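A.,

Following up on our hallway conversation. Structure tokens first:
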């Protein structure tokens, strides 16, 4: 999985660092550092971090699959009711 953060767009809200601390960290008060090659084990945490970014500065290749899985699971639960 490849991760890119638009550091020009990032405002340092640090929601990503809170939700995926093994991938994101703040250096000082505003400077974000991150691992651009996140481990597959971080997939769900990354999805939450991407969704929580108020300025949508985080892009992750290969993360779309998890959104589709959650949507399908929700549809199956709805049908079961």
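Then the amino acids I'd put at each of the 81 positions:
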């Amino acid at each position: 999985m490849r991760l890119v953060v638009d550091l020009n767009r990032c405002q340092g809200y640090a929601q990503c660092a809170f939700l995926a601390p093994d991938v994101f960290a703040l250096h000082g008060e505003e400077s974000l550092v991150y691992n651009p090659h996140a481990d597959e084990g971080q997939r769900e945490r990354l999805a939450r971090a991407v969704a929580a970014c108020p300025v949508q500065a985080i892009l992750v290749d290969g993360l779309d699959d998890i959104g589709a899985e959650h949507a399908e699971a929700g549809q199956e639960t709805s049908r079961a009711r």
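Helices lie at 15-19, 43-52, 64-80. Curious whether your intuition agrees with the design.

B.
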